[in-house]
Write a structure and sequence with these properties.
alpha+beta; 6 helices; 18 strands; about 45% strand; Diaminopimelate Epimerase, Chain A, domain 1
Length: about 260
């Protein structure tokens, strides 16, 4: 048996930018061990595996090269993009996904994909010594949610200058660490970077799920519900965020880079 597998640049406005994700649509649920080794073979931040339900919705799971994760934005964006781009799902129809973080939906608005995700606000907490030592940069706020630590640093230059001690981050017992600051660039509200060495991703290129924490954090600080975030990784990418109560609508674009047969 063989499957078609795709690689999609998510939160990207041109090829070879944004965050690459693998997308594999299966006829039936596959063994977890098999999905994990396929994700390791793809060797991108996350690979998504989809199985269609009778009602037209999809079961969706995400794997990094080393572990399964509970929430992933860019691979969900990539999955929805493939369903519409390959005419598996009519463009006018919403994509519905059943995941470990509940039901997620996605829809098209022109050339932009919007996704309805849970808000994941952080709670202010005393930063553990390992976090302070790993970042080696002063920060004005530290907090965490069920997945990640979030720290605010002085400015955009400080975000871009961070060179964390990755082995120390692994000891924190969380998925990853978000470093953020207000943006100095017109048309952007905040910038961020995301490090998740414990999940097999030293630095993620563009992290949709991190914006489920960034959106409520910056909405409260800036007094606005519609925000534009830029993840300042080497590849970089823009995420449009709208806070709606306990949900966050994330927006971005996607480009299929390759389509291959998985033997």
């Amino acid at each position: 048996m063989s499957w078609i597998i795709y690689q999609v640049d998510a939160f990207a406005d041109r090829p070879f930018s944004g965050n690459p994700a693998g997308v594999c649509i299966l006829e039936r649920a596959a063994p977890e061990k098999w999905m994990q080794v396929v994700a390791a073979e793809m060797n991108v931040a996350e690979t998504a595996f989809l199985v269609r339900r009778d009602d037209g919705s999809y079961d969706l799971r995400w794997f990094t090269p080393t572990v399964e994760v509970d929430l992933c934005g860019h691979a969900t964006l990539a999955s929805a993009h493939v369903l519409w781009d390959e005419r598996i799902l009519p463009v006018a129809e919403r994509a519905r996904f059943h995941t470990k973080s509940g039901e997620l939906t996605a829809w098209r608005e022109g050339d932009t994909i919007r996704m309805d995700f849970p808000s994941e606000p952080v709670t202010s907490s005393a930063a553990p010594a390992a976090l302070t030592e790993a970042l080696s940069v002063p920060f004005s706020f530290a907090g965490r949610n069920r997945m990640d630590w979030l720290v605010e640093v002085a400015d955009e230059a400080a975000v871009k200058a961070v060179r964390p001690e990755l082995r120390a981050l692994v000891t924190l017992g969380v998925r990853g660490v978000i470093v953020t600051a207000c943006s100095a660039a017109p048309g952007r509200d905040f910038v961020s970077r995301f490090f998740a060495p414990g999940a097999g991703v030293d630095e993620d290129s563009v992290t949709g799920s991190a914006h489920c924490a960034l959106a409520p954090y910056w909405a409260e600080k800036l007094g606005k519900d519609a925000l534009t975030g830029y993840q300042a990784s080497v590849r970089g990418g823009t995420v449009w965020c709208t806070l709606k109560g306990d949900r966050v609508v994330l927006g971005g674009r996607a480009i299929t880079i390759l389509r291959a047969k998985l033997l």
